[in-house]
Specification:
The chain is an all-alpha fold. It contains 5 helices and no strands.
Amino acid sequence: MNEKELYKTIGKNIKKYRNEYNKKNPKITQEKLAEIINVSVSFISGLESSKTSKGISIYTLYNISKVLKVSIDDLIKKD
């Protein structure tokens, strides 16, 4: 998997797991997720829509995984 495909996969999985989280917990919008992990809403939106292809740190990925209660592996795993 090349870098562009990896970012696309990460974004797709963030959206998937955020939606799954929302079925069982109080809703986390893109805005709320961005606020919790201290990034911009446009960054989360860009990831989820595959428009961002650079700039996600391990720390940010870790924070997203903790908020959504999934492993980092789940966020980078291609279906």
